[in-house]
Amino acid sequence: MTNDLNTQLKATTENWAKDLAKGLTSVNQLAQQQIINTQQTADLNKIKSHLDIRIPNAFINEIKNNNEVLAKQFVPSAKELIFLPEELEDPIGDEIWSPVEGITHRYPDRVLLKPTYMCAAYCRFCFRRYKVSHSEYNLKEESYQKAVEYIKSNNKISEVILTGGDPLTLTDKVLNKILLDLREIEHVKILRFHTRVPSLLPLRITPQLIKILKETNKSIWVVTHINHADEFKPETKKALALFIDNGIPVLLQSVLLKGVNSTSADLINLLKLAVENRVKPYYLHYPDLAKGTKHFRIPLAEAISLVKSLRGKISGLCIPHFILDIPGGKGKIEINPHSAKQVSVGLWQFESPLDGSIVQIKYE
Ligand SMILES: *Cc1c(COP(=O)(O)O)cnc(C)c1O
Ligand code: SF4
Questions:
Q1: Residue 1 pLDDT > 90
Q2: What is the structure's pLDDT at 162?
Q3: Cα dihedral angle (96, 101, 106, 112), rounded to 10 degrees?
Q4: What is the pLDDT of residues 318-347, one digit of tens each?
Q5: Average pLDDT for residues 75-83, to the nearest whole number?
Q6: Which of 106, 129, 170, 235 meets the CB 3.0–4.6 Å disulfide criterion with 97?
Q7: pLDDT digits (tens, 9 = 90+) for 35-49
Q8: Over the Cα atoms of the chain, what is R_g?
Q9: Which of 54, 72, 128, 204 is the catalytic position?
Q10: Is the pLDDT of residue 221 over 60?
Q11: Over 60: is that where the pLDDT of 210 sits?
Q12: Ligand 2 — pocket residues by CB below 6 A?
């Protein structure tokens, strides 16, 4: 695969831009395609969600054929207008930790760099929905320079996480410029891309893109966001393999979503399929308290037992960390559903994942 990169290059230029343009972006288009009925059309015409509509071309046919796990993720609903008091515009405190525009710096050794708030499609549960899809928040040249300057002047930063929005919706030219700028910064060793493009716009993963990524002298990691086995289409598998065959490791992050992947069977299918495709499950997120996303959350207690039920059933390779981002910018924590309990000094209690039996062992 690596050897014939140059041959592949010729075949693939810019098909992805055409595919992106075929996405559905308005209530009218959804009505025309009979994805929403008259009542939904009327409801959605009355309200204006904070997040734009974009349904990826890759999923239009399945959504028309009533694929509910894809529809729920991308078709807007009037439920997005129900706000709970505990829901926040900026649930994980991106802004509290933003020293300059486009950067979130919450942990000493790594920053988020958000050059764009555009995505290949818009997920209705998006935790960054107050900025995502609004082009006025995209980093302008001057702010971008300041963001790069910030990274340059802080030598504790060893990892830059490109996110947004989706950094892989940027053109090769723009991406290449960013990568060249970061390449100059010696203390930055790792570049991580958070992207949903392998699922939503797999044609975007071209040999040209791989070439640009490989030209940096940094360690490159891709964390892809996929929530359901139905998103692993042949094109997606191919896109993931293009990274991996070229030495770029790919991890999976998913959001635990009611009606999408909130059953044991759905989660197991997703996680096993990821590992079969050499993608290591990294994080499973409990949905953040973003405004208008109540209909995507199952109770936390239920989520914990669901995650608990995975251990012992499927390979350890398949098991992600279950993550909750404490509202208000207090940071990510792992919720371990199997946590050890100390019942008295030096006496520890565990629950077997195999038969649920309680075992007490002395560990001095
Ligand atoms: C999620 C996040 C990271 C990355 O966290 P990891 O645990 O390293 O994956 C970094 N910075 C911010 C602000 C984040 O929200
Ligand atoms: S791809 Fe990520 S950033 Fe974009 S809408 Fe979906 S969840 Fe939000």
A1: no
A2: 98
A3: 140
A4: 999 999 999 999 999 999 999 899 999 999
A5: 94
A6: 106
A7: 999 999 999 998 778
A8: 21
A9: 128
A10: yes
A11: yes
A12: 119, 122-123, 126, 128, 132, 165-166, 196, 225
Q: Which of 119, 130, 150, 258 is catalytic?
A: 119
Cα-to-centroid distance, 93 and ligand 2 (Å): 17
Task: Please give the C-alpha separations between residue 176 and each of 127, 212, 352, in angstroms, as whole numbers.
Answer: 28, 6, 50
Ligand 2 atom with least separation from CA of 127: 8
- Distance from C-alpha of 238 to C-alpha of 127, rounded to nearest angstrom: 28
- DSSP 8-state code for residue 208: H
Check if 106 is active-site. Answer: yes
By CB neighbour count within 10 A (0-12 exposed, 13-18 middle, 19+ buried), where does 278 fall? middle
Beta bridge partner(s), residue 225 = 253
Is 318 marked active-site?
no
Query: 291 with 88: CB under 8 angstroms?
Result: yes
Count of all residues that appear for the chain in the document? 364
Ligand 1 atom nearest 97 alpha carbon: 13
Here the tokens at position 297 are: 């959350």
Residue 107 known to be catalytic: yes
pLDDT, residue 2, reads: 39
Please report the pLDDT score of residue 13 as a whole number.
Answer: 55
Closest to 1 in 3D by CA, of 325, 248, 307? 248
Residue nearest to ligand 2 atom 8, measured at CA: 126
Return the pLDDT at 47: 78
| Average pLDDT over every residue of 95-114 | 97
Residue 24, Cα to own-chain centre: how many angstroms? 21
Among residues 19, 114, 126, 283, which one is catalytic? 126
Nearest CA to ligand 1 atom 6: 332
Provide the token pair at 226. 């996929």
Instruction: Assess whether 283 carries a catalytic annotation.
Output: no
Neighbours of 253 (CB within 10 A): 19
Q: State the pTM of this model.
A: 0.95
d(CA 215, CA 35): 43
